[in-house]
Amino acid sequence: MPSREKITVIVEKRTDAINKYSESIILNLKKGGVAVRVILLDNKPFKNSLINFISEIINTIKATCMIRHDDIVLFTDPLSFNLLGSIIIPNKKFVIFYHYEQDPFYYKYLPFISYQNVLNKLDGIICISNFSLSQLASLGVDTKKCKVVYGGLDHDLFTPSKKKLYLFDYILSVGSEEPRKNMENILASFQILKKDFPNLKLLKIGRVNPTNRKQTLCYIEKLQLTDSVVFTDYIDEKKLPQIYSGAKLLLFPSLLEGFGIPIAEAMACGCPVVTSNRDPMKELIGLSQTTVNPLDPIEMALECKKIILDEKYRDTAIKNSLERAKYFDWGSAAVDVYNLMIKD
After folding, report:
1. How far apart, in whole angstroms, are the C-alpha atoms of residue 73 and residue 284?
2. pLDDT per position as a tens digit, 243-283
3. Gap between the Cα atoms of 210 and 113, Å rounded
């Protein structure tokens, strides 16, 4: 990648998969010799949501004023208020698009401005899967300006590990506990699985907000799984390969994703995956793993049981997952993002 282009990236302070994607793209652009400047916005420094929204508006104004006239601008969150800054700057501008649930609420109060119009005024959109591309098409966005760029992996880090961080047997759940992550059915299927494997634990990794955790704890109490679910919240990324490698499987029956980075990480570590029969999960795993109906806990539990008991079936899943994981690379993703942004 040549370094003559100057790219300013607008990043919101966060710790989720959106942060992982944007952080990895920025790092690999820099490794490729691209001049990248990051404007980091802390849009949620307060506990009060109204004050935070006012802070987000102020940060958007500040960020817009900081953009140089010859910058190429990359917005990393299509749902953040700061994307509105794109309509008043003359620069070439792009955004990374993850997944769509509904328009950000503030568009209801903005006359003559729609979410679709803001997206259509951009010079290009990076979609993290064909599924997110299809969502843009359904919104009426011109897909000719879009390019699918999958998330990647640090292949030096995410490899099978013989070290064990936990000595008990467990299946793994990674991510937040938002409703779309399907925690209720994850726990329901785990309860069914426990009948055959009474010593099995569910290891739940990921930072969550208190409201979602409260709901998860209600499910756990209702299903009498209090002693069988282990929460670790944030885990240093360097320890993740040990956790994936030590798991019986990753259970990831999400209802909605843009990509699903934990699936790719698990496959690279030789951890079998049970995931949704919906896109982009189907798109991500290809033919390397088996998918299930995410609304059917019995089907999910039966697939998990088969992976745990059938050694040949499990070995095939591991072999296929290791091969499929080679397809996801942050270096290649950064090149694709760069090429889209400098294209005339």
Report:
1. 28
2. 999 999 999 999 999 999 999 999 999 999 999 999 999 99
3. 34
User: Domains in the chain: how many in total?
Assistant: 2
Check residue 155 and give its pLDDT.
95
Q: Say yes or no: 99 and 194 in one domain.
A: no
Residues 13 and 145 in one domain: yes
| Cis preceding-peptide flag for 198 (omega within 30 of 0) | no
CB 310 within 8 A of CB 294: no
Please report whether residue 160 resides in a domain: no
Q: Domain of 319?
A: 170-325
Residues 178 and 318 in one domain: yes
Nearest to 6 by CA among 29, 48, 36, 27: 36
The two beta strands, 201-205 and 6-12, are unpaired
**3-state class (DSSP) for residue 338:** helix
Structure tokens at 286: 């290809």
Phi and psi torsions of 27, nearest 5°: -60, -45
What's the pLDDT tens digit per position in 126-181? 999 999 999 999 999 999 999 999 999 999 999 999 998 999 999 999 999 999 99
Q: Residues 56, 59, 62, CA angle at the centre, nearest 5°? A: 155
Residue 145 maps to which CATH number?
3.40.50.2000
Q: Are 317 and 221 found together in one domain? A: yes
